[in-house]
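Appendix B. Chain record.
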Amino acid sequence: MTNAYQTTPRNRVRQLRDNARYDKASVHRILDAGLVAQVGFVQEGKPFVIPMIYGRVDDSLYLHGARKARIVKLLASGAPVCVNVTLVDGIVYARSAFNSSMNYRSVVVFGTPRLLEDDAESLNALRTISEHTMPGRWDELRAPHERELKQTGVIELTIESASAKVAEGPPEDEEEDYDTPVWAGVVRVETRLGAAVPDDRVIEGVEMSPAAARQTGRRP
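Structure tokens predicted for this chain:
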């Protein structure tokens, strides 16, 4: 098994090529750190981008939604899609507007989706999605009802090609601008999960579950 995605005209990074990554470890690491994927597709000649939660196992991304939803129907048809996940790590304050930028990690994935018809496959995929967002929560909950599974369309997207792009470090100014008397540097951007706020219908005496407690203050 290869450790990198093949570089093709479809997934080749064209701008800032030195920031490109095609190895699977980099692509998977960014996907695993994200929470929301932007799923792009074309329907009736018009482009759409829909945010979706997801989960990953090896080279498979799992998405889900109501079976009646437009995007689930389109994905179930096998139409090709493009998925993006971007994590912003900092705002780069350079000595000129031109060189000001952001530090980020991003992934673009291309693949052909399929609707999972097997109940066991669908259940495993839904568990993967749940564990990606709320690690450990699946085992704390009741099992999904049959009617819930029937109402949910679960999609497997096999990653056919992908590329990552990583920008990091201090600003890179023009040499003559380093004498400009203006502050330059990076303002970090961090995503953290905050305090847990209980539902007002939690049964009296029920404590926060271990899965939820582990999430408090965590950085995805």
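Further analysis of this model is presented in Appendix C.
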